[in-house]
Amino acid sequence: MPEGPTVRRYCSLALPFVGQLVTKVGGSTKQISLQDLMEQQLQDCQVHGKNLYLAFGCSSCSIKKPEKTDDVNTQDDGKTEEGCSLITESSAASKEQSKPGTSEEMLVRKWLRFHFGLYGSIRANELARARRGNKRGDWKDPTPRLIVYFDGGGFLVFYNCRMSWCSCPFVDPSRDILCPEFDKKKALRALSQPRPVCITLMDQSIFSGVGNIIKNEILYLARVHPLSLGSILPQEDLTALIDHAITFTANWLNDKMKRKALRYHIYLKEQCENGHQVVKETIGPLHGLKRLTWYCPTCQKLPPCCGSLRLSRGDL
Ligand SMILES: [Zn+2]
């Protein structure tokens, strides 16, 4: 599942198209009317948690394109670090410029929200190719859910994502793990509750942007057993978990922008870095999504009073 850092990289792919007009639209989606995008101008892109938001509006009430955007290429040109910083710059610039006519602009500007589920992705100026044949041996390229062509000659392609229109993106930087305003105190209070920390870490109302990979990795780095009840763990452990969440996610984003692969410590591993056998289990809330969880029972000891959870971990 694309997590916060991946979605930020997707945003950097869309950013160079800000200011351009849509000239052609295609794709298999039935979630929006493709016609609604025609001749609209892409005016902004933002990331909140694991969602990408693209603002479209008519060009007569357009915002100015950030000057530096022209310098950013979407592909392997080594300038993607700059693209990263521009995410904020673009958003800041658009907010700044929209102040005087905010109410007027809100009437004509709509945000398209993308959620990437487990396998969603974006490409710029290229289509995804089949990596392997299907059961019948056919090599069939993935079908774009949405493909948007711009007057600059380029295009954006969206695969396997859900999309819907909204009036404005949800903005609460205090719960976005990648925002400097992330509220560590609120996160600590949430983690201190008497429920397994692996469940709290996936709560998007507190740790927006954290997904299954980040969860597994930071629990291992902090040497915390996924089923430990937050109310039993010492505060230092919970604080370490939050610090690892912030650092790991920021480093992952940096690597993403440089197109460097992430090196896992425990996720998908059979042995931990200390050579112990790793356990893989499906863990999740009673009525929620249960996710595969990797942990090392030697490095990540379960506090004794959490032992009874072992019997019912499938139904937490
Ligand atoms: Zn170990």
TrEMBL record:
It comes from the Eukaryota. Pfam families: H2TH. It comes from Pyxicephalus adspersus. Residues 66-101 are annotated as: Disordered. The keyword Cytoplasm does not apply. Keywords: Acetylation, DNA damage, DNA repair, DNA-binding, Glycosidase, Hydrolase, Lyase, Metal-binding, Multifunctional enzyme, Nucleus, Phosphoprotein, Zinc, Zinc-finger. SMART domains: Fapy_DNA_glyco, H2TH. GO terms for cellular component: nucleus. Its main location: nucleus. InterPro entries: FPG_cat, H2TH_FPG, Ribosomal_uS13-like_H2TH. Binds EP300. Residues 87-101 have a biased composition (Polar residues). One of its GO terms (molecular function) is damaged DNA binding. Residues 66-82 have a biased composition (Basic and acidic residues). Its EC number is 4.2.99.18. Involved in base excision repair of DNA damaged by oxidation or by mutagenic agents. Has DNA glycosylase activity towards 5-hydroxyuracil and other oxidized derivatives of cytosine with a preference for mismatched double-stranded DNA (DNA bubbles). Has low or no DNA glycosylase activity towards thymine glycol, 2-hydroxyadenine, hypoxanthine and 8-oxoguanine. Has AP (apurinic/apyrimidinic) lyase activity and introduces nicks in the DNA strand. Cleaves the DNA backbone by beta-delta elimination to generate a single-strand break at the site of the removed base with both 3'- and 5'-phosphates. Residues 2-165 form the Formamidopyrimidine-DNA glycosylase catalytic domain. SUPFAM superfamilies: S13-like H2TH domain. This is Endonuclease 8-like 2. One of its GO terms (biological process) is base-excision repair. It is found in: Nucleus.
